[in-house]
Amino acid sequence: MGETYNLIIVGAGMAGLCAAAEAAAQGAAVLVLEKEADFGGSSLLSGRYMAFAGTDLQHQEGINDESRFLVDDMLAVGEGKNETELVEAYGKRQLETYEWLVSKGVEFHKVQAVSGHSVPRGHTITPQQAITALYRAAAESGTVSFKTGASVKRLRKDEDGRVSQVIFEHAGKTETATAENGVLLTSGGFSRSEDLLQNFAPHLSGAIRIGGKGNVGDGIKLASEQGAWLRDFPYLKGTYGFHPSADGPRKSQALAFYKGAIIINKFAERFVNESISYKLIGSEALLQPEGITYQVWDQSIMDQGVPGDALYDFDKLLALGLIEKADTLEGLAEIMGVPAGSLKSTINEYNRDIQNGGDQKFGRSTLTHHFGTPAPIGNSPFYTMRTTVAMLATYAGVSVDPSAQVLNAFNEPIEGLYAAGEIAGGFHGAGYMTGSSLGKAAIFGRIAVQAALQKQTVL
């Protein structure tokens, strides 16, 4: 009844390809099923950051960091709603996984200060390069088979109650394959499923939809049929920082607020502490009149742009006409269509507070989390970008243990079923820390394989 493998992996983004490369290194016979024509999924749309601590890149920049600091930051950003065991597993395996990725040919370019971190910890990759390197590491082994355009329809248990059969459609035919050691779901979230978003996150109806086109929650449904418990759905949030045109082919975004910009609504009023997680900012932005918000900054902040960076290449966005510029605040207000007097008053109040030691209105004292010091906005010319909230990734899903085994409602493992990446819930809690999504995909993709193949002690 179809072919038999040690492991079947459903989905070929960061988690699935890390799992495939890990399994290949152990000589396992693996089938990877990807329903889209190409590999990568939402990993290709990411902000390009992976959260690691104590790396060579940090040492080169004189940044003192350790796994325990990373874990503390994750728990703080998640407001204690994370599963501590999952976060600690991340901390225990993160540096090893960073070095493993480098050994597989993944290129890390630099370290940036990003949302939720107390020190610069955002390790920058080029997603396409990383995905290609991991695919090659798996494919060149000769033990891993890939099938694209393969849509998984059902999972089935064997007579011992173990998930072992995968029923999928490929090339117009229905096929069945068997996994002796386990089925690993790395199929992403549901940012493109209006049905699931309306059921689980109706408060995000105002967010544009830009996730990977295959992210419709089919993996969550497959796991749920086998008894999987679901986690973190009450904490679903959009991502703030995208230009409204990002629902088209260009996913343009800028996080100038983490360099010192302020965020205002259509009345030119601030409404949030700009240093908090862009997920939490997004929740506040959706509550603003007509959902209209802008980032506003000056030349001093503009000069901190990073050419080629997905989040901080301000000059590129200016050239594209997505960031707009004026010599005066009155001119900037006219461009935005906000009251000039209110804009000047808002900036004057903010500048006065910053110069006097702290933001009185929203308590901003850093640029992001515990890092950086805000400065007054007054060095012309001035800049703005209309900014909106996007549903890029869902960060909620099936319950898993630290070995990435899927759990039922009684916190018991479902034999033979594993999950890693965006499909897995319980990790992020109430907030999201930049770089932890790709980070957990890589770490738990490898952990799942090691647990399923039982070749070594996972933790």
From TrEMBL:
Keywords attached to this entry: FAD, Flavoprotein, Oxidoreductase
Superkingdom assignment: Bacteria
InterPro entries hit by this protein: FAD-dep_OxRdtase_2_FAD-bd, FAD-oxidoreductase_2, FAD/NAD-bd_sf, Succ_DH/fumarate_Rdtase_cat_sf
Domain (FAD-dependent oxidoreductase 2 FAD-binding): residue spans on this chain: 7-438
Oxidoreductase is among the record's keywords: yes
Cofactor entry: FAD
Gene3D superfamilies: FAD/NAD(P)-binding domain, Succinate dehydrogenase/fumarate reductase flavoprotein, catalytic domain
Protein name: FAD-dependent oxidoreductase
Native source species: Planococcus liqunii
